[in-house]
Design goal:
Strand order of the largest sheet of chain A: 15-16-17-12-10-18-19
Oligomer: homodimer
CATH architecture of the largest domain in chain A: 3-Layer(aba) Sandwich
Number of domains of chain A: 2
Largest sheet of chain A: 7 strands, mixed
CATH topology of the largest domain in chain A: Aldehyde Dehydrogenase, Chain A, domain 1
Helix content of chain A: 25-40%
Structural class of chain A: alpha/beta
Number of strands of chain A: 20
Number of helices of chain A: 19
Radius of gyration of chain A: 25 Å
Largest interface: A-B, 64 and 64 residues
CATH class of the largest domain in chain A: Alpha Beta
């Protein structure tokens, strides 16, 4: 397929919203021999400067990435630049990039994704050893899923950029004469974009904004989290290579690495030359980013995701599903369910009323049972940061009733792995101070409510005030299902109903599921709705009278 | 045509951007007998309460409109409501309106426009005697042009609301099994909208936001300017009538009249229940509106529009065109050109260099000559507010060199008419304090620059700092034309090149020209780009596993 076919198929998929993937998610789809090659490349990169970037004028080489599996530093260093150097280079590149045609931009971006496909295993290893994600998740999230999200963003942008004709001949009948004008309609890029990455999903949450920026003609500076640079460095390197081959200023995309003792994010974000900011990360920093004047800002901050348990056809299957959902990557996904609202009046299971204590017990047992699963390490992954581990370890002090102390687990391969299973805490509905906060990591709260109506009211208020990326509900009553869906949708939280088996509420499928709605405090953007691309450029119409 | 055909034609027109009008602009197109009927209705309304609204619970009846033609109060009173009453009724109506189908909403809105068509002459008289616009302009701006803009907004909204399928069956092949989900994609309205009108274009600047709100499922409160209520009251009354006929809560649209001694705009705008605000008016108030937290805001504030004069094929034709452009509605259009940048090195006219003084003189003479035109009052209209007249009368004190004192003019029909022709003031390029402000009304500034490069630089900075809705340029050199266009487009100002004859830079054609770009300080919105409608609702996707 050439780039145009790939984009056309993506545009079609976005508007059909049935299943589609340009990049298959199974590691095996990429060939048997690709993993050993990637592992060799990965090993060769450790303890060395990352030389793949085409950026010059660095003031130092730094790096502090550390594997949550081995607890050893990766020893990879990256070039460090002055903020003013980055901005000046971006300004020069912007003059060129804004004049590159829509088609050419699209071609270069699709070509880059196709090139990165060849390095998915190296990207996966880089992600695995920086984020702590299990290998398969690291492969999928940072490789095919991230590339699909990038394609989704660029394809929708491509369509919007071509929405209005670039030129028209306008004739207006005015009685006996006809007046006429030549008109041109131009989607003018806003300027220089800053894309701020996070430590847990360094490419999945970075590529959509980056590719939307580049497609709409905005050069970009990517500021990765100091503890997860390597995966994104590969994407940037490939982008720069493709630009170079096409004789376009490689500073169209720059990697801006900093270190925890000298963070440059605020300096970059506040710079007058920065017009667009994409941010994934904490609530506090996200709100600061949103408050910056005269910037176009796209945020994904933290939210608190709820599960409303009302009734089920098979409650054990439900709890098995939820146990997996809270264990996946040790609750370090922005879509991990945290708050389980369970009515004290019990839950109907295939028509039989199961009392509250038994419901909690069922859930507890499924989470505990998972810790005996031989595939556990492939589900939990490891804990990305020391801070998250501390939070998990001290969950018992939150003030609730500890229903399940995190089962002791070890990693079969990495003795030093920072691995941790979920803790379950039970709280009362009036202990709002405990459960109306995001407890990032493997901490699950069970909230005892009066009834489903009460659960729903608490969950709705929580989204309105703290935001959420998703909400799971279990209910077999049609009227109640509608009530739950309407109430949560009213505060712009999507609802996943009765997920069991191979579906988990944490997962959003590219080309079908929107990730985030942009409508509640969890963030102001969505992958990929029309606003995600349209806000990056401005339609300007020029007119000329023919002489 | 039924409503669906009307919308389909509008969507097609929006994307073709060639000439199209659903509502012809010529008063004659609406029948010979319609004017006398309208005049009777208008006369019958004077000195009486406006009884067309279906709102109840008013606390008083007030009105202070005054004709700039007769200087007499119209004596029409409108019901006054407590802010809390308006909000509570909107909240009740919102629960109903959000559930009305997209098709039904579209049908009701198009039906309303078709009904209002029958009242265009009454709307014109109401506009004429509140804004001071000449009759034909009042007819066009408040009738067909406003209705076309309303249709444009609702049609684009309609298309966007239907962009993604409302439901899909999603199947994902997973090895031997196929997993499946039912999905629904819903465009959820943001909530209650406040639409704040202005005194000079009370319907043209109000209908786009209002119709975009209603189409996207957001009930609305219209807060007209206390001196120009009547034209918008007719539209609201017709909307309410159509709602009533369809047995839908008429509070889906409410008119919130206030008076200059008790303004309620801030109280409404700051109310937590208000999610969306559309505003047209002053810079100061618009910036206040933009600063309100947690609101989705659409603004059209003031800007300073420039004319860059470089060269021409027929300079006299150019100056004749510009004289008309500055005289139309006495410079009270947001698109009126104010600043004329003319190089001191002169201007080439059909290859012949005309010195600077002669260029200014040509312009001056054309403006002065217009004051002898028997059709002058139909061009100038009258001055809407006392404040604008005062500003015009004291233009001589601005600090520049008075090139033309406003020629004395009278109105042939209305002895008391607040009529005023343009004053022309010449300033130096370094007198920025004078020309970097909007001087709303019949005041024109000629700025003497070094050369066109200098003109362009000053004009570009002006847009960047103060904003502009439009920019006119006269230039016969291809390279320079491109330079001017690029520089102005870079700061998101559209350029109209070499307009003479029947085209004036002030005019933006619905379905073809964007009004405002939203990219510079003149405002953050554009009639009608995709953002103008997409920002009013949120895409939410629900998923359910089939049992």
């Amino acid at each position: 397929m050439n780039y145009q076919e790939i984009i056309e198929k993506a545009i079609e998929a976005i508007h059909k919203r049935t299943f589609y993937a340009q990049y298959p998610e199974h590691p095996k789809s990429y060939g048997e021999d690709t993993f050993p090659i990637a592992e060799k490349a990965y090993q060769a990169q450790l303890q060395k400067p990352f030389k793949g970037l085409l950026q010059t004028g660095e003031t130092a080489w730094r790096g502090e990435e550390k594997s949550p599996y081995t607890q050893e530093v990766l020893g990879i260093t990256y070039p460090i630049f002055e903020v003013e150097t980055l901005i000046e280079k971006a300004q020069v590149a912007q003059k060129i990039w804004r004049k590159v045609s829509i088609e050419k931009r699209a071609e270069l971006l699709v070509t880059t994704l196709e090139r990165c496909k060849e390095r998915f295993h190296e990207i996966a290893l880089a992600t695995h050893h920086t984020t702590g994600q299990a290998y398969v998740m690291a492969f999928q999230a940072s490789g095919p899923h991230a590339a699909d999200r990038a394609l989704e963003a660029l394809a929708l942008a491509y369509q919007e950029l071509k929405r209005f004709p670039s030129s028209v001949y306008w004739e207006k009948p005015m009685g006996r004469i006809t007046a006429s004008l030549d008109k041109a309609f131009l989607p003018i890029p806003k300027g220089i974009g800053l894309v701020i990455g996070c430590s847990t999903f360094p490419t999945w949450n970075t590529l959509p904004g980056l590719f939307a920026n580049l497609m709409t003609g905005n050069v970009s500076i990517v500021k990765p989290h100091p503890t997860a640079i390597y995966p994104m460095a590969i994407y940037v390197a490939e982008l720069q290579k493709v630009l170079q081959e096409n004789e376009i200023d490689t500073n169209v995309i720059q990697l801006a690495v900093d270190s925890s003792d000298n963070l440059i994010t605020k300096k970059l974000a506040e710079h007058l030359a920065i017009q667009l900011i994409d941010f994934t990360g904490s609530n506090a920093f996200g709100s600061y980013i949103e408050s910056l004047p005269n910037k176009t800002v796209f945020t994904e901050k933290s939210g608190v995701n709820s599960v409303i348990v009302d009734s089920a056809d098979d409650l054990r299957e439900v709890m098995r599903n939820l146990a997996f959902a809270v264990s996946l990557y040790s609750g370090q996904m922005c879509t991990t369910p945290q708050n389980f609202f369970i009515p004290s009046t019990g839950v109907y299971d295939d028509g039989e009323l199961i009392d509250y204590a038994t419901v909690v017990d069922l859930f507890r047992n499924e989470v505990a049972a998972l810790s005996l699963n031989p595939k556990l390490s492939g589900i939990l992954g490891t804990i990305q940061s020391e801070k998250t581990l501390e939070r998990a370890n001290s969950a018992g002090n939150l003030g609730g009733n500890v229903v399940l102390e995190a089962p002791k687990v070890t990693h079969p391969q990495f003795e030093q792995a920072r691995i941790c299973a979920p803790t379950i805490i039970e709280v009362e509905a009036d202990q709002l101070d405990i459960y109306t906060q995001e407890l990032f990591g493997p901490i699950v709260l069970v909230i005892k409510t009066k009834d489903t109506q009460h659960s729903l009211q608490l969950a709705q208020n929580l989204v309105r005030e703290k935001g959420a990326l998703t909400c799971a509900a279990y209910c077999v009553d049609e009227t109640k299902k509608e009530e739950i869906t309407e109430a949560m949708n009213e505060v712009f939280a999507p609802v996943s109903l009765n997920f069991t088996g191979m579906f988990w509420v944490n997962q959003h499928a590219t080309f079908s599921d929107f990730h985030g709605t942009g409508g509640n405090p969890a963030g102001n953007a969505s992958y990929t709705d029309p606003l995600f691309v349209n806000r990056r450029f401005v339609w300007v119409g020029n007119r000329e009278k023919r002489s």
